[in-house]
Amino acid sequence: MLQKWPVFSKKEIRALQGLSYQEIAFFVLEAFIDGEITSEKLQMIIQESYRNFRHKTITPLLQIDANSFVLELFHGPTLAFKDIAIQLLSRIMNYILQDVNQYCI
């Protein structure tokens, strides 16, 4: 169980530049999961969660002029922004519930 709220240094945040959505998700989630899920299993869950997205970057950032950008959140299986979180959260919940012989519908 998480005992302390994770804090990321500026150096750690800068190091995320250029990484894939899945790699960034792993870095952030691993700090919050605090060993409840193995690193290998967490990586697998993240990969499964985003494999059906229609864009390789998951949430492409488009520049529309010099200082304006649009983050596209509609490339998931249902074409809705909720896919970004729900695809991952549902798999994490199922994994944790299976560990205690429970399930959710």
TrEMBL record:
<keyword id="KW-0456">Lyase</keyword>
<dbReference type="InterPro" id="IPR036052">
    <property type="entry name" value="TrpB-like_PALP_sf"/>
</dbReference>
<protein>
    <submittedName>
        <fullName>Threonine synthase</fullName>
        <ecNumber>4.2.3.1</ecNumber>
    </submittedName>
</protein>
<dbReference type="InterPro" id="IPR037158">
    <property type="entry name" value="Thr_synth_N_sf"/>
</dbReference>
<dbReference type="Pfam" id="PF14821">
    <property type="entry name" value="Thr_synth_N"/>
</dbReference>
<feature type="domain" description="Threonine synthase N-terminal">
    <location>
        <begin position="3"/>
        <end position="50"/>
    </location>
</feature>
<dbReference type="InterPro" id="IPR029144">
    <property type="entry name" value="Thr_synth_N"/>
</dbReference>
<dbReference type="InterPro" id="IPR051166">
    <property type="entry name" value="Threonine_Synthase"/>
</dbReference>
<dbReference type="GO" id="GO:0004795">
    <property type="term" value="F:threonine synthase activity"/>
</dbReference>
